Amino acid sequence: MKQIGGIFLFLLTSYGLYGQAKVPVNPSLLNGKWDAWWITCPGVSLTDFGVYHFRKSFDLAKKPQAFVIHISADNRYRFFVNGREVCKGPARGDLAHWRFETVDIADHLKEGKNVVAAVVWNYGEYKPLAQVSYKTAFIVQGDGDAEKIINTGSGWKVYRDEAYLPLPARQTTVGPGIELQGEKYPYGWETAGYDDAGWQHPVRLGNGIPRGKFTFWDWALVPRRIPFMENRFQRLKKVVRTENIRADDRFAGGNYPLMIPAREQVKILLDQTFLTTAYPEIIVSGGKDAVVEIRYAEALVDQNGVKGHRARIEGKTMPDLSVDIFKPDGGKNRKFQPLWFRTYRYVELTVTTKDQPVTIEDIYGYYTGYPFEERAYFKSDDPSLGTVWSTGWRTARLCAGETYYDCPFYEQLQYVGDTRIQALISLYVSGDDRLMRKAIDQFFNSLLPVGLTQSRYPSCQPQVIPPFSLIWVEMVYDYWMLRDDREFIRKYLNGIRNVLYWYQQQTDDSGMLGPMDWWNFVDWSFGPWDPQRPVGGTPPGAVEGHSSIITLQYVHALQRASQLFDAYGEKYEAQQYRHLSASLKKSTFELCWNKEKGLLADTPEQTSYSQHANILGILTGMFDNRENTEVFDRMLHDTTLTPATFYFRFYLAEAMVRSGRADDYLSLLQPWKEMLELGLTTFAETPEPARSDCHAWSASPDYHFLSVVAGIRPASPGFKTVSIEPHPGYLKRIEASVPHYAGDIVVKLERKGKRITGTVLLPAGITGNFLWEGGKIPLKEGDNDIDL
């Protein structure tokens, strides 16, 4: 283990309690006021930017077998035991659902003197949009009598760290860059040997309050229900450009420190070779008063701001969006790590020295993200599909942390439209439903008095996209079909009622939805973002009224809801939803169907047409099977229609299945292959020019490889039965596995002309049917031979 006299003390590939098994919470802490107090620093604004160190020393007669504690903070914290970081938090939520982490720190304690410590920060006015906040505070509660010695209140000390400054002029949607002035930093503050005699005694704000147990609260505490984020050591791969210094890949590999002489400025451009989300760390020695600027980017840009091929750097520079600055104090092995992770493929160091040379000892990162495991697989005789699969999975992983993210570089916000697709991918590939459950619950918690969910949540800035509320209904339906968990679903029925009732109020005498408020986003193909008026991405009729697209989105949500309410014995409402959906669908067809074109128009004026309207016509059952096929073929090949971009191509694929054209699914993948040809290592938000190089809605092929090409889908609620209807297209061989809560579903198939042979393995207790070219084979648990 390498000793570092820097901001944090250890270089580890994995460390602390990240990934530990879930530790139970003392029930009394969920039902009564905590003994521990929320504490903070005296004499400071509790809502402005600030970084604070808390610590407490205590003695133990012997090393304990167990020592369970509960931790939270506002905005965020990192927690240390005897100099070692053991966890980060709290998992993002809102004030009415403020998460606390539960950890057993016994392995990090020892007989005699121990110290626990935390760095807590409030980004203040620069906080990310996804960060809800009340005021700067920190709390630790011992689980029982043995651990109460650690309760925040008496014995704790606090220090305001003025070494940190925000860099607000950069990309601030995800939080500020950080400038750290090394000469002001209290090195070693988290270790037992540090002298905290000059630190202050914290102010008590109030006791910890569990959610729902008191009539008032500051933070209504609820347990964290997701695991800690993955924390994996990750080296930068290549040095690709330098100025005023010689450096090669040995430096990137950690084997070749670089010395920059006094009064020099040098630049070093490093390439991770793939996009990542990580906590970068840099270690320097000497260099008092030097300035080390660290820039991060998804891609370099030319003089016109164009990214082009992502691996090509000639004539390109780093965009000025994500920047940190470290000013060393001249000490040896000083380490800098920003408080929050960064998203990057490229990292550029600009080092400017004063009167003392500086040595860059090393630079690397710690990958962070939700710890999804890749349990599913998809294999075929086309190796290019394997690259699409792996790139899609990297995209999905970088867009998942304590919540799902739309994108890791620009926003890190959990949007409903993105999240539905992300949740299906992560559930199909990993089998882990915890982040999906959290997302469904958080959108439910975001419900506004008007009846709609917020479009993104958690968020300190409310935003409403009404069609996303309908997609939340679809998310609940997805979970109902894929998980046998009736009680989890039951509590969201009233939220579904509220959403559907709001839409019902928007219908007018035409029998379609009339004019609607808010931002009625459907797809970026309907225009770019307009900061002056919420019309970017909104189809014709979305604002003025009578949009066939949004009316049919409402119809589809009503159809899903009718099934849900039927299953829960709410027969009257289920019947009402069926009647309303049929009426809306009929009116939309009568007003928007153009017989000559054989297509559905976007509005009754029939002046514009899109793939979206016809996709939704197919998905809502507006046409019979023959008409489905005809409409799909026309809308797919008519270049005058507004096309679906990567987001809505998820629904295009679903319509392809419904229309009997699923064998052509692989032909839809050309845009994804073009992204790979451009050197992207994740899939972008939109076709070029793309703002975001990593957007999880574009990872949908991973879901469709399993659900369409391999054809593995639930045939009944709770995934109690399975339907396997493969659509291999030009492929001759398919192997796929999907993690089911009862065990893995495994499909191995070979196609010879119109004949298909192979095996299907189903988990214990699961049955279903294998469907192919009009034939059917009943499937039992265990091994099944296929020959049709």
Folded structure, characterized:
Helix 3 (416-430) packs antiparallel against helix 4, helix 7 runs antiparallel to helix 8 (548-567) and helix 8 runs parallel beside helix 10 (611-619). Among the domains are: 27-227, Galactose-binding domain-like (Jelly Rolls), CATH 2.60.120.260; 231-369, Jelly Rolls, CATH 2.60.120.260; 710-788, Maltose phosphorylase, domain 3. The chain is built from 14 helices and 34 strands. 50% of the residues are buried. 22% of the residues lie in helices and 27% in strands. It starts with 36 loop residues before the first strand and ends with a strand. A hairpin with a 6-residue loop joins strand 27 and strand 28. Mean pLDDT is 95; it is low at 1-19. It is globular, with a radius of gyration of 28 Å. The chain is α+β, with helices and mostly antiparallel strands. The strands form 7 sheets. Strands 10, 11, 15, 16, 17, 18, 19, 20, 21, 22 and 23 form an 11-stranded mixed beta sheet that branches.
